[in-house]
Specification:
The structure is a single chain. The chain is an alpha+beta fold and 815 residues long. 46% of the residues lie in helices and 17% in strands. Helix 3 runs antiparallel to helix 4, helix 4 (156-168) packs parallel to helix 7 and helix 14 packs across helix 25. The longest helix is centred in the middle third of the chain and has 35 residues, at 362-396.
Length: 815
């Protein structure tokens, strides 16, 4: 199986002739969606860059570039020139997982640094708060009232020292990053907060040094601003780490070592990256399986829940396949490696999930675009707030009637405070985190349930689908049909010219079901279609031996043919036989109709131009096919089924599934499926296609959303937007069809969280920015001081991330 992960570009330009390569950069220093926009725009301006997609939560940038014109190291260095720390993320090593272990280590170091800063800021907050209690309501230098036993805490110079320490130590990185953003003409959240804190500190210092101005000292404001910002970022970082936990849990499944069994049966423990295909690996009870492979000795049960979401262990015997990252539970086994390193199912899953983070939903692109201009707008509003209140507001508003007579005496101080509040309360960070955190958590939930969704753009497409189209064979049915009826039409025996009765030379029209199946078995040799498999299984069970055949030919979607002796034997659909001038006798028509009404597929066998037999094949329906269909209908989706069966099978399908006959498209050829999907789309339908075979690929590509399964062909998996990983324990080729329902439910739930987060982030700024600018001050005397604005701003980001984490508790059908 292959799980490919091709990134979709966000910002794209199209040079004429390219030698395309893709690289991933780890970018630190991004604080908000404005930073994301700045990084993407800068990368796109570099020579040779075709596309750039940046994720704020994972701090990864996926860049598509012309390797003849630039290199990843050059791009990383260019980001450092504009204030971001960037390194090239190493390509997947031979151990397979494009690991986030380095990122996890860096994340741990960042958390430790923030913990120290948070502890310092918390101490400053406590000291500043206690001192604030002891100050008079006027907060002026002259009227400071001592608090018994805490005279030092009420000393204004002590508060100046606290504010200075806050600015120079925990706030220094914030100010530096804000200045870097301003210097590169890409101001970010730190620019806004840094300007607010620094303005409050400078204003209070002037008031302290020049008391005759009569200004208020508010050194507690910069201290609280920095403290609340660090508090919010620490909680936000913890929440983001939780969102990344599912991906890191996947990576942790890859064991670092493996037990290699040498040719002389010596077991040696070596690093897993030294294991190669066809090597023999011993796996003991309680160990993680290090490679994909086939069991060649031993028997055990394997816990595959980490890959498929299936909680019950799966019995594994000789000949069964096992996957890297699954847990061997009971017995020791020896495995012949088939896929190692970056080719294992686990490594491909991790790579798919990682790349899925770079595929942005259109709504996120809109949010990033807005955030790119957000800080400029806030800076402009802050300036206008200052100028408006200083020149007009302080003269027009009757502060005395509002009980704020002293405020009127300090219009400059009032204007500065309101401008600071605007800078501090604005939160581009919430806007930037709204989409990626929800998508990341949604992907984590999906991974734990065996659902792989390729990107944020898929979520939006799923939310818009109106119709789900199922391929019948192998999707709604088990894909393992069995022979139910063998009907001989006209038995007759032809002897060879010399009168011999040699089995391989006689010209034989079958007289018994066994003879009929022997002919069918002969022409189906070497084919792997589900019908061929059913016939081969029947022949093996009944100990039938194939005849000598030649000139084997397959007509895809129609049938097979071979020469047996000097006669051409054809096996396939009636349309194919009729195309070859082979007609169905009228006396046989009632039997064909009876079989079709029973929901069986009829296969016709002819020798030369004479129809000699009918073979009826039935395919068991998936156990959860009917519940899944009904659940999808309950969700408001229209269901359609594509099948190559005859029209007479419609009634049986309707009886079993409850789908209207008008929505069952029979007799459709493989190359007609995509055309049918296109017709639905032309009628205004948004179509999701569910299929697993090679002949489903054109339809999967044509559909708005494509869903395939782990048991499907590699090309079908590669074409799918959603891959279902969970397989039935009794039949490794059978999916849990209810997972189609789960994948749509999860996609809808994730996008709902995205919308909730965006609505909150936008509504928060729409409400709080005018409030901070003094919108309620003229009428109600209510104003937002900078420290309270900082607290509200920190809570805004925390709210968005926490709301995303609630997606972990979404209820999906069957869970």
């Amino acid at each position: 199986m292959q799980l490919s992960a091709q990134p979709t570009a966000h910002l794209t330009k199209s040079p004429p002739t390219l030698a395309i390569s893709t690289a991933t950069l780890t970018v630190s220093g991004m604080r908000c969606a404005g930073c994301v926009s700045a990084v993407e725009s800068h990368l796109l301006k570099q020579t040779g860059v075709v596309s750039a997609v940046v994720n704020l939560v994972t701090e990864l940038a996926t860049v598509t570039y012309d390797h003849r014109q630039t290199e990843p190291d050059t791009l990383a260095q260019s980001l450092q020139t504009i204030g971001f720390t960037a390194t090239v993320k190493s390509s997947p090593s031979t151990d397979g997982c494009p690991s986030l272990s380095n990122q996890a280590a860096a994340e741990s170091e960042t958390v430790q640094q923030q913990t120290w800063q948070l502890g310092t800021a918390t101490a400053l907050l406590i000291l500043s708060g206690l001192g604030h209690i002891g100050l008079s309501s006027h907060h002026s230098v002259e009227t400071a009232l001592p608090l018994p036993g805490l005279s030092m805490l009420t000393n204004i110079w002590f508060h100046w020292g606290l504010a200075t320490l806050a600015i120079l130590w925990p706030g220094r990185s914030l100010l530096q990053d804000g200045w870097q953003g301003l210097r590169r003409l890409a101001p970010n959240m730190n620019t806004l907060v840094g300007l607010g804190a620094l303005t409050a500190y400078v204003t209070s210092t002037i008031a302290l040094l020049v008391p005759e101005l009569g200004w208020e000292c508010f050194f507690d404001e910069p201290v609280m601003v920095i403290g609340f910002i660090l508090l919010g970022r620490s909680l936000e970082r913890q929440a983001r780490n939780k969102a990344l936990s599912a991906l890191r849990a996947l990576i942790a499944l890859q064991p670092p070592t493996a037990r290699l069994v040498t040719t002389d049966q010596v077991v040696t423990e070596i690093p897993v990256e030294r294991i190669h295909p066809n090597d023999l690996v011993q796996v003991r009870s309680g160990e993680m399986i290090p490679v994909d492979g086939l069991v060649i000795s031993g028997q055990t049960t394997v816990d595959e829940s980490m890959l498929t979401g299936e909680s019950l262990p799966v019995l594994k015997q000789v000949g069964d396949s096992v996957s890297a990252g699954t847990l061997n539970q009971l017995g020791a086994i020896t495995v012949r490696a088939t896929h190692t390193g970056q080719d294992t199912t686990l490594a491909r899953m991790v790579r798919l999930v990682e790349v899925a983070q770079t595929r942005k939903a259109p709504v996120q692109r809109l949010a990033d675009t807005i955030a790119g201009y957000f800080t400029y707008v806030i800076l402009a509003i802050a300036v206008l707030t200052f100028l408006g209140w200083y020149t007009i507001g302080s003269r027009v508003v009757d502060f005395a009637s509002l009980g704020l007579a002293e405020t009127a005496s300090n219009p400059l101080l009032l204007s500065i405070k309101l401008g600071i509040a605007v800078l501090v309360v604005a939160c581009p960070c919430a806007l930037g985190l709204a989409t990626p955190t929800a998508i990341l958590v949604g992907f984590g939930v999906g991974t734990s349930q065996g659902l792989l969704i390729r990107g944020g753009d898929v979520l939006e497409k799923v939310n818009r689908i109106t119709t789900v189209v199922f391929d019948k064979t192998g999707t709604l049915t088990s894909g393992s049909p069995v022979v139910t009826d063998c009907i001989v039409i006209a038995p007759d025996l032809y002897e060879c010219d010399d009168g011999s009765q040699d089995t391989e030379q006689q010209r034989l029209i079958p007289s018994t079901p066994e003879a009929l199946m022997q002919l069918a078995f002969t022409v189906e040799q070497g084919t792997c279609h589900p019908i061929a498999t059913a016939i081969q299984r029947y022949a093996t069970t009944h100990n039938l031996v194939p005849l000598s055949g030649s000139h084997f030919h397959t007509e895809p979607g129609y049938g097979v043919a071979a020469m047996i002796g000097n006669q051409c034997v054809r096996l396939g659909s009636y349309e194919w036989l009729r195309h070859n001038n082979i007609l169905l006798p009228a006396s046989v028509q009632p039997q064909v109709e009876q079989l079709a009404k029973a929901g069986k597929q009829v296969i016709y066998l002819a020798i030369e131009h004479r129809l000699v037999g009918l073979i009826a094949i039935a395919d068991d329906w998936q156990p959860d096919a009917v519940p899944a269909i009904r659940q999808l209908q309950h969700m408001g989706l229209e269901i359609k089924v594509l099948t190559g069966d005859k029209a007479s099978t419609k009634a049986a399908i309707t009886r079993i599934t409850g789908i209207a006959e008008a929505d069952i498209i029979v007799g459709i050829k493989p190359d007609e499926k995509a055309s049918y999907i296109a017709q639905l789309q032309a009628q205004g339908h948004r179509v999701a296609m569910v299929g697993d075979g090679i002949n489903d690929v054109p339809a999967l590509v044509q559909a708005d959303v494509s869903i395939s399964m782990r048991s499907g062909t590699d090309v079908a998996i590669e074409a799918a937007d959603i891959v279902l990983m969970r397989l039935d324990q009794a039949n490794s080729q059978r999916i849990h069809l209810i997972d189609v329902v789960k994948s749509i439910q999860l996609s809808r739930a994730t996008l709902n969280k995205v919308h909730q987060n965006l609505i909150w982030a936008l509504a928060y700024n729409v409400v709080c920015v005018p409030l901070a600018a003094g919108a309620l001050l003229p009428r109600y005397g209510v104003m937002l001081n900078p420290s309270l604005a900082a607290l509200i701003m920190a809570l805004s980001s925390i709210t968005v991330v926490t709301n995303s984490l609630l997606l972990r508790y979404v209820r999906l059908s069957g869970i």
